[in-house]
Amino acid sequence: AQSVAQPEDQVNVAEGNPLTVKCTYSVSGNPYLFWYVQYPNRGLQFLLKYITGDNLVKGSYGFEAEFNKSQTSFHLKKPSALVSDSALYFCAVRWHNNNDMRFGAGTRLTVKP
Amino acid sequence: NAGVTQTPKFRVLKTGQSMTLLCAQDMNHEYMYWYRQDPGMGLRLIHYSVGEGTTAKGEVPDGYNVSRLKKQNFLLGLESAAPSQTSVYFCASRSHRGTEAFFGQGTRLTVV
Predict the structure, then answer these.
(1) What is the distance, to the nearest Å, from the Cα of residue A18 to the centroid of all Cα atoms in its chain?
(2) Taking CA atoms, what residue in B is nearest to A10?
(3) Strand A24-25 to strand A87-95: parallel, antiparallel, or no bridges (unpaired)?
(4) pLDDT, tens digit, for every residue of B48-92?
(5) A11-62: per-residue pLDDT in tens?
(6) Quick one: CA torsion of B95, A70, A68, A89, rounded to 10 degrees?
(7) Which residues contact B60 (CB under 8 A, 6 or more apart)?
(8) Residues of A in contact with B59 (CB under 8 A)
(9) Residues 4-33 (A) with a CB less than 8 A from some CB of B
(10) Are B100 and A34 in contact (CB under 8 A)?
């Protein structure tokens, strides 16, 4: 069965430092990969996606993610973190031949001033 | 520009009571989803629909029923609520050609 894992419950970084939030997925066919962000008491907001093509995708608010097929990973990155980036981040996967979409458990990012 | 709207936003139920959560989208999307969000477990898929009149089970369908009588609406029903169904419920939709989903603001349900 398709699945996605976020190995870190919590990531702490200092403002201005680079950040990485990790995501891996189970191997089965060709995946669509997504990152969403959730602020307190809000729904999820789409950040970026990988469908095909260039392995490095750029999204909203300066975030980017790199698709690595050999490592089945799709880590979220940002060169310089902001305090306002503090939120809950979810990785999601959907396979081309499947209509449902599965999410990881989420990673809470805290950026300290 | 409403997007995905969930009704109600908050609800407290007693064990054994029933209720229906409504999700409405105004983007003419084909696909609609219901998730529940619990601490440390992320979002788990309950049921989804690939079009009007169709529904399918997700990861955690037990205790829930759904209906998609109109393209724009996706209803989630709890026939006999249990404390284990205390959660935050999110609805999402996406177009047939598009890939990313759009989410509602969530419904916080407490079953006592």
Answers:
(1) 15
(2) B40
(3) unpaired
(4) 999 999 999 999 999 999 999 999 999 999 999 999 999 999 999
(5) 999 999 999 999 999 867 778 999 999 998 888 999 999 988 889 999 989 9
(6) 70
(7) B36, B44, B45, B46
(8) 102
(9) 6, 9, 32
(10) yes
